[in-house]
Structures are given as C-alpha cells and as structure tokens.
Amino acid sequence: MDAQGRGGAGDIDPADQWVLNPETGNYELRLPGARQPGQTGRSAGSAADSGARPPRNAPPRQRRAPSAPGDRARPETGDKPVPGQRDRRAPVNRRRGKGAKKKRSRGRRILTWAGGALAMVVLVAALGAWYWWERLNGNLTRVDAGVSADYGSDDPVNILFIGTDSRSGEGNDSYGGEASEGNDTTILMHFSANREHATGLSIPRDMITDIPECEVTNEDGTTETIPASEGVRFNQSMGAMGRDPSCVVNSVQEMTGVTINHLIMADFNAVKDISTAVGGVPICLEEPIDDPKSGLSLPEGEHVVEGEDALSFVRTRYGVGNGGDLDRIKLQQQFVASMARQITDGGILSSPTRLLDLAEVATSALTVDDEIENVNDLRLLAQDLGQVSMSEMNFVTVPVVDNPDEPEDARATVVLDEARAAPIFRMIQEDIDPNQAEEDAAAEEEQAEAVEPAPAAEVRVDVYNGGDVMGAAQQTLEWLQNVQGMPLTTNKSNAPESQETTTLEYGADQADQAATLAEVMGLPDSALQQVDEDRGEEPMVLVLGNDFRGAGQPIEVPAELPEDVDSITADDESVCAS
C-alpha cells in the first residue's frame, strides 16, 4: 500500500500514527513532527515514541470526500471555523492546489483556442488572398500587342492607352455612329526614368496618316500580315482590314519615334464601370452641353459623373467647341486627369475594400498586353508609375492642321503639323522634362541675346553637302536666298568627307552672322565651331550632315512644348470644358 496515499511516510506503520487526544478521548491521526495535544517543548514524532498504539478494535481510517475549506473542526476545540474566516493557525498551502490546476487548464484552453483561431484567420486570409488572386488573374484579358517590356527601374516607360469603339454591353448600341473595333481614343503616356514627370500625348482619331504593315495573330494561332495603308484616318489602325492592337502600336511608334513598353485597352463598359467604382469623376463645364447623339445634357458648372453619364461625357463632340474630335479630346483629358486625382486623393488607395473593388472592376474591364503576365505585374507597374505626382503629369494633343486636301466648307479631318509636333516627339524620345526644357530654352535665349544678330543680307556662307540627302546644298541655298533674304550664300557642292551632324565654322569677327544663320536653320550649340582669328570677308563654312531633314526644317528640334500647344496638368482642378 502506498504510504503517501494514507498519510504515511517512509517505513512508519500507519497504525502508529493514531494517537489519543486526552481532551476529547478520541484517537486522532497525527503526522510525524506534529505537536500532540497537551505536549509542550517536545514534538511527538510518532505514536511509538510514547508507547501509545491505537486499540486493535480502533476503526480503520476511511477515505473521505474532500471537504470544503473551513468544514474541518479545529482539533483543539472541535468547533468549526466561521464561514469565510481563515484559520490563521492552519498551515497555508503555498503549492498550487486543484483550483490553480483548473485555472491553468483553462488558460491553456484559451491559448489553444486563440492559437487555433489565429491559424484559422491566417488560413482564411490566405484562402481569401488566393481566391482574389485567382479571381483577378482570371479577369485579365491579355493580347499580343508586339510591345517591348525590356526596361529597368531607372528607364523611362511608355504606355499606350486605347479606348475602342466597341459597343458590346447593355445600352452601348445607343451611342451615335457605326460601331467598329477602331481606336476611338489613343493616348501615349510617357513616364520619365526618375518617375518625376509624365506626359500624356493624345492622338486625334481623325488625323490622316500612313499606317505601316503589321502582323496580326488570329484566334486559331496563325499569323497574317496586313498591308500598309497610306493617307487614311488614324483610327483605322485597328479594326479595319483585320488590324489588331499591335497595328496601333506600330503606327504610333513610327509616327513618334517612341518605343512602346505596354498596352492598356478599354471599351465603353470600362469607362462606365471604373468611373462608378471610383465614386464618380468630378468635371467642370463653362457652358451647358446638350448633345442628343451622346445623350449628355448638363448645365454649366461643376458635376460628378459616373456610369452612363461618364461615358456620354467622354463621347460627346457636338456639344462642345466646333463639334470636332479635337474638342472632345480636351474633355477626355480633363476626365482622365480628374479620375487620376479621384484615385490618388479620394481615399481609394488607403481603403483595402475600395481598392479591391476597383481592382475587380479594372481587371474585368481592361485588356493588357501579354508582357503583363498577372495582376501582380500590373500592381507593380502601377506602384512604380504612381510615384509621379499629379502636378508633374502633363496632357497635350499632337499638333495638327486642317487637311489641305479637303474644301474649307467641308473639312472633317486633320494632318500632322510636323514642325510643331517634332519638338514634342523629341522631348519624349529623349526623356526630357517639359519644365526643364522651358528653363533650358530660356537660358539659351538669354545667351543668344548677348550677341546682336547681323542683318540677313550681310550673312556670307559657303554651303557643302556632307550628308546622304541628294541636292541638300542646292535646296538650302535656294531657301536661304529666296526665303530668308541671304544673297551672299554659295553652293559648294559635296564636302570632302561625309559627316553625321551639321557644322558651321566661323571666325571670331563673324559671331553675329553665325547667330543669324543658327537661328533660321535651327542649329544646335554643338554645331557652332568658332575659330580664334578674324575671317573678314571670307565666308563662313556650313557643312550639312546626315541630320539634315530638308530645307527650312530645323537641324535640331527643340525638346519643349510649343508655346501655342494647349497643355493641362493632372492636378489642375480649375480646368473647365468650353
């Protein structure tokens, strides 16, 4: 029998632990070392020490159910303590008893439950993330657009946004004109390498241009080459003759000289759904618009449009300006800029719920190039390009002029104004900040003013052809003499050696003549080569290089926005359509 179970210890007989209590006349169990009733000064180690043993007929010790604290009688008096009052003479059990054990078990259960709940939360979050990841990925529509996504984090990025004429979807067939899959809206967005500025270049759909040959991929995976077209509207670069988005990419690249890295395409439904998802897009009208063809009817002033109204706003053209595509482009630029502000400043990016809703709508409504493999690529792209502030995002329209081949009273198309468009194209090609370009131009103008230009009639120059253009020297001579009023110019035919860039050599006493010629020919500073000695009546030497583009066309195109080109910034809330 286990002694610990009966109150015994070591090799002591349990019967020896029963002693007589003289005060009560009863045998009671006493443990070794406990003071016996009536004893002082000497501890009673056991019943054997006093010769007392319980009688043979003493009732055996019975197991009893544990009594509640305070139920046991005091051995000295036989009285029970007052409920709620602790017997101060009873030893205090400092060990954890059953109550403590229960408390610890409950704590463990709580921790176990919390750990399980946390694991469940993590699991649910992971499943939710996986669900949304799969769902958003499943929403994406990707096409082979022939773009080049080969760029680094410190390289500029060019994205082509296309708004199509597709009228699929409820209510979209009510919009004026015949439905097509053409590129109704085209914006080339350039983001600088340092992500400090961006330029959105709108290309008019009714601009007459040449569309290069392009290769398209059919639904069955086969490829087909679509022949080039000359002198057609720009919006025929998609849809007509089976052309797909890659043909738009080719056309824009050939027109601007800019390599496109990504394509994002939206249809009518995208405008309606995204404008609703962002909570509406604020717009401003200087005059009321009432356009039966688009269905837009709004008074002047500020409005917030979404859904059908938003689509009607970007589609209207007969209710503003002269009813042409150029005025509609201004509405679209205002709309896009305002939507960008709504996303960045309207609390969407800080709200996971709204951001997820927008992601759901955007991935369902947009088509992207196949270089964007999943929604994470799209997210990283947006995160990278989102560094550009609204105040540094400019929107301009490609400079155009009325089509000279159309009668004045029936003009419906435009053509590219090459002289005014070239500086903008160069600005994007060379990733030049428009604001910095203005500062550089002002500095150059200030430096040029330090030298008083000579009268055109006093300019003496010999012209040599050192480039690949046949007859360049003669063309330039005739232009200088007949157009610029410089009779003292001479054609010296071909230069001894060919050269890539145009140069102008002049003497120290010919700085004023060089300034005049550089101004009319658009020569860069790098082309001017001054020698120390005076040259007197000896002519300056102009050698045309391979950068010669034609008589009357500047050798160097200034990388800046022409003064007469309208431009707005995305943070300008004061822009109102008129």
Number of DSSP helices? Answer: 11
* Helical residue percent band: 25-40%
Radius of gyration, whole Å: 46 Å
Q: What percentage of the residues does DSSP assign to strands (E)?
A: 15-25%
The gross shape turns out to be elongated
Instruction: State the end-to-end CA separation.
Output: 106 Å
Largest sheet: 8 strands, mixed
User: What's the overall average pLDDT, rounded?
Assistant: 78
Structure summary, number of beta strands: 25
Task: Give, in spatial order, the strands making up the sheet with the most strands.
Answer: 3-16-11-4-5-6-17-25
Structural class, judged by helices and strands?
alpha/beta
User: Which runs of at least 5 residues are low in confidence (pLDDT < 50)?
Assistant: 1-11, 33-104, 167-180
Topology readout:
Blueprint: E1 18-21, E2 26-29, H1 98-139, E3 141-143, E4 157-164, E5 183-191, E6 198-202, E7 207-211, E8 214-217, E9 223-226, E10 229-233, H2 245-256, E11 262-266, H3 268-277, E12 281-285, E13 289-291, E14 296-298, E15 301-305, H4 308-315, H5 325-345, H6 352-365, E16 366-369, H7 375-385, E17 393-397, E18 400-402, E19 414-416, H8 418-429, H9 434-448, E20 461-465, H10 472-482, E21 489-494, E22 503-506, H11 511-521, E23 528-530, E24 540-544, E25 567-569
Parallel strand pairs: 3-16, 4-11, 6-17, 7-19, 20-21, 20-24, 22-23
Antiparallel strand pairs: 1-2, 4-5, 5-6, 7-10, 8-9, 11-16, 12-15, 13-14, 17-25, 18-19, 22-24
Helix pairs in contact: 1-6, 3-4, 3-6
